[in-house]
Amino acid sequence: MQARARLASLLWRALSIASLTTLTLFVPSPAISSARAGGVSQAGRVTRLSNLTTLSHWAYPETAAAVHSAPAARSPVIGHLRMLTPDGQAQPYLALRSFSAGSSASSAWVLVPLPGRPNGREGWVAARALGELHATREYLRINRETLRATLFRGRRPIWSAPVGLGRPSLPTPAGHFYVIEKLISVGSPIYGPYALGTSAYAPALSEWPGGGVVGIHGTNEPQLIPGRPSHGCIRVRDTAMARLWQIAQIGTPVEIV
């Protein structure tokens, strides 16, 4: 049993540090690995689809399918895929991991993050509910201490700028998120000419139209950057925001630290 536990530890460590081409884990026994949640335990094959820094994958949903607490149809339903963002754009989903308990397509599941409050929720959807996987090698990091945002491609910084974040009473939330949409002229000069919608939600209402979503956008008050002037959104001076809008992709992971 000790040898088997040590083997499991080594396998999962390799899974977390390997590149995508070596991320498939074949599980011969439930004692080595299983998908557990909602009272479901299954042995199968786990593939890491996104490392959230150098290579990530995303897809649009094919249908408003149920999201489960575990990769099994009999596990509890915790939500449904959304077809549209709050701004009426097509809603993408990051594909974090896949799980397959057999050779048939019906046995394949994908773990996705669920945009909305509370931040950080994840669930499993049938793989057939998602369309074609798209890849991104970019990663946007927002540092709340230094008030700076940096976009990486691979591990190389390709863009960086000071930012304005949420005031102390309405802080910009920390966590792992992703870009869900690219917008031009959100509808008010306070957002500048370009904006990115993210999967993050502010603890209370943000200044984003409709409230809630943490957007990355330009500003008509550049003198407040760097600083903490917002209701949770991330403000960028218009010139820098125009450049970020050009090079950032849908599905780009966003880490707020």
Instruction: Assign the structural class, choosing from mainly alpha, mainly beta, alpha/beta, alpha+beta, or little secondary structure.
Output: mainly beta
Helicity, as a percent range: 10-25%
Strand content: 35-45%
Low-confidence stretches: 1-34
Outline, from the CA principal axes?
elongated
CATH superfamily of the largest domain: L,D-transpeptidase catalytic domain-like
Rounded to the nearest angstrom, the distance between the terminal CA atoms is 39 Å
Rg measurement, Å: 19 Å
Return the domain count: 2
The CATH class of the largest domain is Mainly Beta
Rounded average pLDDT: 84
| Annotated CATH topology of the largest domain | L,D-transpeptidase catalytic domain-like
Q: Total number of β-strand segments?
A: 22
Order of strands side by side in the largest beta sheet?
Answer: 15-14-13-22-17-18-19-21
Order of helices and strands: HEEEEEEEEEEEEEEEEEEEEEHE
